[in-house]
Amino acid sequence: MMEPHIPVLILSLAGIIAISIVSWVMLTAWRDWLALRKMALTVGDDSGMTSPAARIELAALRERVRKLEAIASGVDLLP
């Protein structure tokens, strides 16, 4: 027969793992958002004065942030 403290230990470990995963996702999203803001400040507005490579990188960062926000809110994205 199982000891009474074993299920509590399992639930506690599962909770710690879940909190760790959520924290990691939020930290990654925060870093990407900061990178996006930094790039937007250094690139300037999209009035044609930016290089195509910078615009492509900015679009890739925006897409990554959008996907991370969707993951954080629990929405499934279509490929």
Helix share, percent? over 70%
Report the principal-axis shape.
rod-shaped
Number of strand elements: 0
Order of helices and strands: HH
Strand content: under 5%
Number of helices: 2
Biggest pleated sheet: none
Question: Which descriptors would you attach to this protein?
Answer:
single chain, 79 residues, mainly alpha, 2 helices
Question: What does this molecule look like?
Answer:
The structure is a single chain. With 79 residues, the protein is mainly α. Helix content is 77%, strand content 0%. The protein is built from 2 helices and no strands. The radius of gyration is 20 Å and the shape is rod-shaped. The N and C termini lie far apart (47 Å).
In short:
By secondary structure, the chain is mainly alpha-helical.
Topology:
Blueprint (H helix, E strand, L loop, with lengths): L4 H39 L8 H22 L6
Helix pairs in contact: 1-2
